[in-house]
């Protein structure tokens, strides 16, 4: 259960963040805000401030660069995240991972649930765990329910890599990092990834690093 956060303090925190210039600072693993259940958004930020905060999250995601960013990753314990993925990958990677372009989306109070039993395991990284990646098995299809930035309800099925992004960012709002779900024998530095594990799937990494991997959909 989320511990209550004073509305005025939260608004002041966001105002202070936005008073700076450039991308917002991203907090790293070890900061308690990443391990707390975030507060549901219920108007703590007025519409103008919410719009500015969403814009700053978007700019920070672009600058990192990343394909998603949750409010706790900039130290704000609100159930709010942004996602966008232009998916600039080779066709073989796109096909293996189900990675298709996703437009910019704002997820307010998101929740997801698996659809079916299919799972897929691929290397995954996180802006709050810089320099490392690990294989995470996740449901291949999920149903996302949330609100958009205008308060309109969203009920949508995501599949493949977009489903992975939705799960990763929503997990942040529940105090969960991807490492909590990862196959730790697969943990690899970005340097090792570039040198050894650029294949579309983790099959070779599983064989050489000694962890189980099954291509499952």
Automatic annotation (TrEMBL):
User: Which example biological process does GO assign this protein?
Assistant: translation
Q: Which domain of life is it from?
A: Bacteria
Its top-level enzyme class, in one word, is hydrolase
Q: Which reaction does it catalyse?
A: N-terminal N-formyl-L-methionyl-[peptide] + H2O = N-terminal L-methionyl-[peptide] + formate
As recorded in UniProt, its EC number(s) are 3.5.1.88
Protein family membership: Belongs to the polypeptide deformylase family.
Sorted alphabetically, which keywords does the UniProt record give?
Answer: Hydrolase, Iron, Metal-binding, Protein biosynthesis
What protein name applies here? Peptide deformylase
**Cofactors demanded by this protein:** Fe(2+)
InterPro entries, per database record? Peptide_deformylase, Peptide_deformylase_sf
Q: What does this protein do?
A: Removes the formyl group from the N-terminal Met of newly synthesized proteins. Requires at least a dipeptide for an efficient rate of reaction. N-terminal L-methionine is a prerequisite for activity but the enzyme has broad specificity at other positions.
- Which GO molecular function, any one, fits this protein according to its record? metal ion binding
Which organism was this protein described from? Streptomyces montanus
The record, for SUPFAM superfamilies, names: Peptide deformylase
List ligand-binding residues for Fe cation: 126, 168, 172
Pfam hit, one: Pep_deformylase
Task: Recite the UniProt cofactor note for this protein.
Answer: Binds 1 Fe(2+) ion.
Catalytic residue positions: 169
């Amino acid at each position: 259960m989320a511990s209550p956060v004073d509305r005025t303090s939260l608004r002041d925190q966001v105002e202070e963040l936005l008073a700076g210039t450039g991308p917002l600072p991203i907090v790293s693993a070890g900061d308690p805000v990443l391990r707390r259940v975030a507060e549901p958004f219920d108007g703590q930020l007025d519409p103008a401030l919410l719009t500015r905060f969403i814009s700053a999250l978007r700019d920070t995601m672009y600058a990192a660069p990343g394909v998603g960013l949750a409010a706790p990753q900039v130290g704000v314990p609100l159930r709010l995240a942004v996602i966008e993925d232009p998916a600039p990958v080779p066709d073989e990677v796109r096909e293996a991972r189900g990675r298709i372009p996703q437009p910019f989306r704002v997820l307010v109070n998101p929740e997801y649930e698996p659809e079916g039993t299919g799972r897929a395991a691929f290397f995954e990284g996180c802006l709050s765990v810089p320099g490392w990646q690990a294989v995470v098995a996740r449901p291949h299809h999920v149903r996302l329910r949330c609100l958009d930035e205008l308060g309109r309800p969203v009920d949508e099925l995501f599949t493949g890599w977009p489903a992975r992004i939705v799960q990763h960012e929503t997990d942040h709002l529940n105090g969960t990092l991807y490492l909590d779900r990862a196959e730790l024998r697969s943990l690899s530095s970005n340097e090792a990834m570039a040198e050894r594990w650029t294949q579309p799937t983790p099959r070779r990494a599983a064989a050489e690093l000694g962890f189980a991997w099954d291509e499952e959909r």
